Fold:
Amino acid sequence: MTTQTNQINPGMTISLEGKIYRVESSVKVTVPKGVPFIKTKLKNLVTEEIIEKNFKVDQPVVEVSLSEKVLEYLYMEGKDYLFLDDNLEQVLVPSSIISDKINFLKEGIQLKALFYGETIFSIELPQFLELMVVKTEAIPSKLAINNSGKYGILETGAKLEVPLFIESGDIIKIDTQTNQYIQRV
Structure:
């Protein structure tokens, strides 16, 4: 669907040069001796890179609608990741879409995926997950501040700083967006 740039609002999804972007901000800029323009910040839904882009007023842009599905992680298949959707259909997600989120994927975890047609553009993990610590190791003394913690290696392979009282076998709650320990469960 084509829309005009002066109708761009934050939250919209647009297609630009073959890539899909979410509009983060949009401001009309008027200059005393010049042509007004629309200044936007756009987030690439694949790479999560934020770019700034200026548009002429009333320039046509292609607005796209994304569909959201809940997927359940099954296992890694080759270099890609196999998920199951609500209709029990298998969905193969490329490793480029998963990127560093692999650190928190284990069998049975459900997440949201954004699709444009049949193409998946991004996944969103739940903000909080409960995972088991399989190993702990001391933080090298150069990095530790007042011996405040140690590293916990989780069942998914993720490595993050945890308090000293956390031991192997403990289940901990973590924030997947900040990669931080929240509490022991």
Q: What stands out?
A: The helical segments are 95-98. The two ends are 48 Å apart (CA to CA).
